[in-house]
Amino acid sequence: MLKYVLLGFLNYRSLTGYELKQAINRSTIHFWHAELSQIYVTLKALENEGCVTSKIQPQAERPDRRVYTITRSGRAALAQWLAQPITELGTKKELLLLKLFFSAQLDKDVLLAQLRVQRDLHQQRYHLIQNEMATEIQQSAEEYPQLVKDAVLWEATRRLGELHEEAYLHWLDETIALVQKKL
User: Fold this and answer.
1) How confident is the model at residue 92 (pLDDT cuts 50, 70, 90)?
2) What CATH number is given for 2-83 in this structure?
3) Residue of 115, 120, 150, 119 lying closest to 136 (CA atoms)
4) Over the stretch 104-136, which tens digit does the pLDDT of each residue have?
5) Where are the domains positioned within the chain?
6) Between 69 and 93, the higher pLDDT residue
7) Prediction pTM value
8) d(CA 4, CA 153)
9) What is the pLDDT of residues 148-158, one digit of tens each?
10) For the residues of the chain, what is the DSSP string, one character each?
């Protein structure tokens, strides 16, 4: 799927691998992420497939950078992928739930500490999605008027992330109270 994430961002404008990583971190991070090394490997494969081209862009006082541009073939591959219906639910791995499932024998204070760490992490993500991502979407729509329709869908994905984090925080609060009371 990373192939299509990269094609999607390159469909907006030409970017370097590092800029693609930044774009992911500012937008899709709450539902899709990638390591920089994965991005570069995938970009090389996309270039071999003819979906992107790259050019070296010289820079004064900095190393040259490689800028990637989507091709007509890349746009067609992206459009075909976007048009394919999703006919099944995706599977999800959730490490906290896996550990919690088997944690009845764990010391209560250790378990509560782990749950509180997760609560803090989800609270941080909630604020990121609610504030920084919302601002980023608004600024992008203002800076690039041709992406106003895209921004509507970016906001829809951001909102689901926000609702997901709200629900997760609510569940963590309930689970902490349950552990305090029953274990």
Assistant:
1) confident
2) 1.10.10.10
3) 150
4) 999 999 999 999 999 999 999 999 999 999 999
5) 2-83, 95-182
6) 69
7) 0.90
8) 16
9) 999 999 999 99
10) -HHHHHHHHHHHS-EEHHHHHHHHHHTTTTT----HHHHHHHHHHHHHHTSEEEEEE--TTS--EEEEEE-HHHHHHHHHHHHSPP-SPPP---HHHHHHHT-TTS-HHHHHHHHHHHHHHHHHHHHIIIIIIHHHHHHHHHH-GGGHHHHHHHHHHHHHHHHHHHHHHHHHHHHHHHHHHH-
Structure tokens at 51: 């979906």
The mean per-residue pLDDT over the stretch 3-15 comes to: 98
Strand-pairing partners, residue 52, are 70
Distances, alpha carbon 90 to alpha carbons 72, 93, 114, in Å: 29, 10, 27
Which candidate, 131, 126, 119, places its Cα nearest to that of 161? 126
